[in-house]
Amino acid sequence: MENFQKNTHTCTLYLMCHGDSRQDDVKRYIGQTDLPLNEKGIEQAKYWQQKLSSICLCRVYCSDLRRSLETARIIVQNRQISICALPELREIYLGTWEGLPMTEVRQRFPEEYERRGENLSDYRPPTGESFSDLRTRVVPVFERIVSEMEGNILIVGHAGVNRTILCHVLGIPLGNLFRLEHQYGSLSIIARKGNSFRLRCINILPATQENNIRI
User: Fold this and answer.
1) Residue 211 belongs to a domain
2) How far apart are CA 53 and CA 46, in angstroms?
């Protein structure tokens, strides 16, 4: 992936996970449930607004779900740049599990819960999507974005969406996506030259303000 060719198209992708949007302390299956940012999520977005202020962004993309769009708007609110909100970048749809606590899903759907754990890539919750479905939806859009643009691009996505992109970039099986740490408000940076990708860093958190990673 580091065998870059000279004089080819280049871009740097700033891949952001939206800020924290949890409305309580219960672990839930959120998916496409359309929640706003909470107070912590707003502060995370404001941190990146300042941290990325010196980066010239050519284009900004996000999911059309509220938590993603709000994060993008805060980050670029002092810039003369439009935001392209794409439904293809929505989080995985979890069907009848949407909004339910994880403990309730384990109790009500024990067989389905176990099957998903055994086949993370391809299992679909009732009326929902699998991660393979998500990849089919997300990767073509991602490829189009990075192939059409040069310079610096910001994508504000979701944990499942961004992990799927990272699996694609790294060439690792989709079933390993939860091995990639990717928290609310985190930033990963991907460089592209020609048809080659290089992951420069992953899961930089707003709280790590004293780190020495250059972005």
Assistant:
1) no
2) 11
User: Structural domain of residue 159, as residue ranges?
Assistant: 16-195
Q: According to the model, what pLDDT value does residue 192 have?
A: 92
Q: What is the pLDDT of residue 2?
A: 42
Neighbours of 58 (CB within 10 A): 13
Q: Is residue 25 part of a domain?
A: yes
Indicate if the alpha-carbon torsion angle 22, 205, 102, 162 is positive or negative: positive
pLDDT for the residue numbered 122: 97
Cα–Cα distance measured from residue 30 to residue 26, given in angstroms and rounded to the nearest whole number: 11
In three-state secondary structure terms, 108 is helix
Regions of the chain short of the pLDDT cut 70? 1-9, 208-215
Two tokens, residue 81: 């740049």
Between CA 200 and CA 121 the distance in angstroms is 26
On the CB side of 6, CA atoms within 13 Å amount to: 0
pLDDT of residue 1: 39
Into how many domains does the chain fold?
1
Q: What is the pTM of this model?
A: 0.91
